[in-house]
Amino acid sequence: MTFDTVLMVDWSGGNDRGPTPKKDAIWVCAARAGMSEEPVYLRNRQVAEDWIAAFLTAERAAGRRVLAGFDFAFGYPVGFGKTLTGSDDPFAIWDWFAERVEDAPGSNNRFDLAGQINGLFSGLGPFWGNGLKRDIADLPRKGRDRNGHQMPEKRQAEEQAKGAFPVWQLSGAGAVGSQVIMGLPMLARLRQRFAASVWPFEPLISDIAIVEIWPSLISKAVAATQPEGRIKDAHQVWLLAQTISGLPDTDLDRLLKTPPNPEGSILGLGHEQMLTDAALGKLAPPPLRNDCFAMPQGAYWTPVDDALAHLKAQLRSVTGTEDLPVSEAAGRFLAQDAKAMRSHPPAPNAAVDGYGFAGPAGEGAQNYRLVDGRSAAGQPYPGSVSKGQAIRILTGANLPDGVDTVVLQEDVKTGNGRVAFHGPLKRGANARDAGEDMRAGAVIISAGRQLTPADLATITAAGVGQVSARKKLRVGVLSTGDELRDAGTPAGPGNIYDANRPMLCATAKGWGYQVIDLGRAPDDRPTLRGILDDAANSCDVILTSGGASAGDEDHMSALLEGTGTLALWRMAIKPGRPLALGLWQDTPVFGLPGNPVAAMVCALIFAQPALQVLAGGEWNDPQGFMVPAGFSKSKKDGRREYLRARINDGRVEIFASEGSGRVSGLSWATGLVELGDQAQQIAPGDPVKFLPFGSFNL
Ligand code: AMP
Ligand code: MG
Fold first, then answer.
1. For residues 204 and 561, what is the distance between their CA atoms, to the nearest angstrom?
2. Ligand 1 pocket member 500 (CB < 6 A)
């Protein structure tokens, strides 16, 4: 059962008639794909019902399935319906209320109706809590005055949900009885008008499902995430809509799969922890789709830009989030926007050492009487400075009352308790305004940013001590090939040293990821399979090198082929060519070429931006610049070329050999020259694009 849109409604038993918003009126919030819109305030039930009906109409017209949640009981304890309508059919109760409830912004008949219903029961009750001045026959004011009505106090759901109120109480703090009476007629009308299905009374076959919710199930998450200045009811529907809409289908199915229950139930009851975790973003996001690397194989060789566009479109973050103190957050990707907790600077202060006074100062000689005392950073002057007076003030000190301008100490003469200087000086000179750098509440660093040392200063200055960050991406690095030997161990003439692994491990570490060294795999399929099985459990993404082509000993591509997720990308790129991408038990695998130069170039061009997105960051297009060539070259058509390069004397030179086996050229270079897909003749002095290694975050 999948829903495109989740709508959460916080209903109300009261009505707001006044001009100013009331916190207990109605809040609704829509979310799609795990992202909530802004909550909407609806001042009374009439406005709300119209708004919801219009919303459902529009969603249906757009072909979207809607899960609509309402925060009041959909039914009463068993036995109530029998006495009221002659049957325990919950919809008969809905219709009963729909026919009798009168509701206008100024008045309604809920207390009288409750009294009438009580009359059908023996004894006194079950409803109580007459909220009107006048007495109502059969409706006691106090719960304890009830007797002999024979209704259970709570539904099963309220027995289970800690802190939930019974449906019989009509007034007083926390009472929900009135919401139910005033809500059921609206549900009855929506159900009929839209032929909606109602949980958990009937199978959810309609494209509109109506469910009962109770935001308090995730009250911990609500409290932990409520932004300053947002009303709690608004935040509750916002968070719940976002959480439910972001649940993987299997989790939502679990919530919806409950036995039919004529009393109604609360969606998510018994799954509070899972919902709270999801609301706090603690769960890892769902895995990538099986076909995420599948690319239309039109051209025989895939242009680099097509491959990059494909990765950019298909990938998203696979990491969970955690809260971290700022001091541990360098290099982490922000999971939520960081907002200034207070303004920076928090108060107007002096930008220089000097003398403060009320500006402006006019042309010519100026002379002020100095007040006794001074204002220093951390030691503000408590008094105020009157017109015509000045005060000694130091850099960073708050401007005392009456001071808005500072004259530089180098520009003054002092003596006899006076300070003199030459004007003019504009009002506000050498002073900083409160909040001129950052304003309290404003977003200062956006989600997705990999925090730099400077960012730590920025958010700390804004009073933020803790950030919501993505967990570190766990990157497994594996080399493949029978010929490989580890650094510093004996090797025969048929062996070569595993150069890729230290290089790729260090690269991934430099990008800020947690590196898991998966060692070397021989050219043997069962062994490689075992290594990948283990790696899939401990890594978020796996980088392998070697064995990625389609030859006999290319076991990496063969194994990925077996999972049905392999995409063997024949890249129109030099050096590089084959890139084997796939999912091993939901874990993405980047099968890089074995050749170290090709492995590095492909890691920079393809893996760098891809991993950054998997880690929770934004796609990175490396920023290069044009430099006159210090070489000549005739380049073939139909493939992108990357040359090891460095800048010398304002020109970019390239490594003597283009041979991709020449590892040493990678060390010689400080970046890559990128030559476009077309044929070109490059003569010395022609502008070519240089991508410094730094543009790949190296
Ligand atoms: P392959 O893609 O496995 O056919 O490897 C292509 C070339 O790269 C072969 O010459 C390999 O010996 C070499 N090679 C593969 N893996 C590594 C590695 N980890 N370090 C150095 N060279 C490698
Ligand atoms: Mg090999």
1. 39
2. yes
Structure tokens at 180: 């139910």
Give, for ligand 1, the residue of 479, 486, 496 to mutate: max count of ligand atoms closer than 8 Å to Cβ.
496
Q: What are phi and psi of 517, to 5 degrees?
A: -75, 110
> How far apart are the two ends of the chain, measured CA to CA in Å?
45
The overall average pLDDT reported for the chain is 92
Residue among 478, 485, 523, 545 whose CB has most ligand 1 atoms within 8 A, to mutate: 545
Q: In residues, how long is the chain?
A: 698
At residue 386, the pLDDT reads 96
Q: Is-contact 468 379, C-beta < 8 A?
A: no
Beta strands in 259-388 (DSSP E): 321-325, 338-339, 349-350, 354-357, 361-375
In this structure, how many other beta carbons lie within 10 angstroms of the beta carbon of residue 172?
14
User: Cα(551) to centroid of ligand 2, in Å?
Assistant: 9
From the list 313, 334, 71, 343, the residue with the least C-alpha distance to 213 is: 71
CB count within 10 Å of CB 379 equals 12
Residue 547 Cβ contacting ligand 1 at under 6 Å: yes
pLDDT in tens, 136-159: 999 999 999 999 999 999 999 999
- Give residue 520 CA to ligand 1 midpoint distance, Å: 12
- The residue type found at 114 is A
pLDDT band at 332 (very low <50, low <70, confident <90, very high): very high
User: What six digits make up the tokens of 306?
Assistant: 């097509």
Secondary structure in 3-state letters for 32-73:
ECCEECCCEEECCHHHHHHHHHHHHHHHHHCCCCEEEEECCC
- Cα–Cα distance, 429 to 216 (Å, whole number): 53
Cross-strand partners of 29 = 8
Nearest residue CA, atom 3 of ligand 1?
A: 546
pLDDT, tens digit (0-9, with 9 covering 90-100), for 525-570: 999 999 999 999 889 999 999 988 878 888 888 888 887 677 777 7
- In 171-320, beta strands by DSSP E: 197-198, 208-212
Distance 231 CA to ligand 1 centre (A): 60
Task: Tell me the CA–centroid distance for residue 482 and ligand 2, in Å.
Answer: 7
Residues 6+ apart with CB under 8 A from 144: none
Backbone angles phi, psi at 356, to 5 degrees: -100, 145
CA distances in angstroms from 331 to 254, 281, 474, listed in the order given = 37, 20, 14
Q: What is the average pLDDT across 619-626?
A: 96
pLDDT value of residue 20: 60
DSSP string, 474-494: EEEEEEE-TTEE-TTS---TT
pTM of this structure: 0.64
Establish whether residue 660 lines the binding site of ligand 1, counting it when its CB lies within 6 angstroms of any ligand atom: no
- CA distance linking residue 203 with residue 197, whole number of Å: 7
Tens-digit pLDDT profile for residues 257-299: 988 899 999 999 999 988 998 888 755 666 788 888 877 665 5
Q: φ and ψ at 257, to 5 degrees? A: -85, 80
The confidence score (pLDDT) of residue 515 equals 98
Beta bridge partners of 356: 391, 406
Band (17; pLDDT cuts 50, 70, 90): low
The Cα 627–Cα 620 span in angstroms is: 21
Q: Among residues 467, 475, 384, 393, which one has the least CA distance to residue 429?
A: 393
